[in-house]
Amino acid sequence: MADRLTDAELTVLGLLAERPRHGYDLDRTVEERGMRQWTSLGSSSIYYLLDKLVARGLVERDPAPAGSRRSVHRLTATGHRITEEQSLDALDTPSPVRGRVLIGIANSRELTSPAVQERLRRRLGSLRAQLEELDRRSREQEPLPSQAAALFDYGRAMLLADAAWTEDLLR
């Protein structure tokens, strides 16, 4: 198998596997689907990644039409193959949990202290707000392709589990 792609690279390749896109379209899709919640893919990094993927021969760039600055990018045959291989690999590779909250818990002397309890209540409020935002984004984009619906479902399940865990800490 080729060198392992970063999560951000594989995400960009996956979006290009759906259809050829220009950088702005990629950025808009990442934002609309809430992908920034689970992969570090900022607006400026998309263009850097596109250049990197072109250099690796996984993506080709069509010249921008006259009067436009937007070049369209598409997967090469190698890009399609690598995207499929590494996407399948990602399905059976559990990701380690690295939530910053775990550091806060580990460094707290007493979970029942007023300061810790207040921060956990604030956390719970933030999780609920994120859940509302996720649900709103999902509704706005209906009907969703099955893989996009699965991404929203996963995000929802993770937020619900995190909220339930936080509620347990508050008891």
Key attributes of the depicted protein:
64% helix; mainly alpha; Arc Repressor Mutant, subunit A; single chain; 171 residues; 2 domains
Question: How would you describe the overall organization of this protein?
Answer:
Strands 1-3-2 form a three-stranded antiparallel sheet. It is 64% helix and 6% strand. Helix 2 packs across helix 3. The model has no long low-confidence stretch (mean pLDDT 92). The chain is mainly α and 171 residues long. The protein has two domains: 85 residues, Winged helix-like DNA-binding domain superfamily/Winged helix DNA-binding domain (Arc Repressor Mutant, subunit A, Orthogonal Bundle), CATH 1.10.10.10; 71 residues.
CA-atom Rg in angstroms:
20 Å
Number of domains: 2
Indicate the mean pLDDT: 92
Profile the largest sheet.
3 strands, antiparallel
Residue stretches low in confidence (pLDDT < 50, at least 5 long) are none
Tally of alpha and pi helices? 7
CATH superfamily of the largest domain: Winged helix-like DNA-binding domain superfamily/Winged helix DNA-binding domain
Just give the CATH class of the largest domain: Mainly Alpha
Tell me the distance between the termini: 48 Å
Query: Order of strands across the biggest sheet?
Result: 1-3-2
**Strand runs, count:** 3
Q: Which fold name corresponds to the CATH topology of the largest domain?
A: Arc Repressor Mutant, subunit A
Beta content comes to 5-15%
CATH architecture of the largest domain: Orthogonal Bundle
Q: Level of helix content?
A: 55-70%
Bulk shape: elongated
Order of helices and strands: HEHHEEHHHH
- Structural class call reads mainly alpha
Keywords: DNA-binding
Pfam families: PadR (PF03551)
GO molecular function: DNA binding
Protein name: DNA-binding PadR family transcriptional regulator
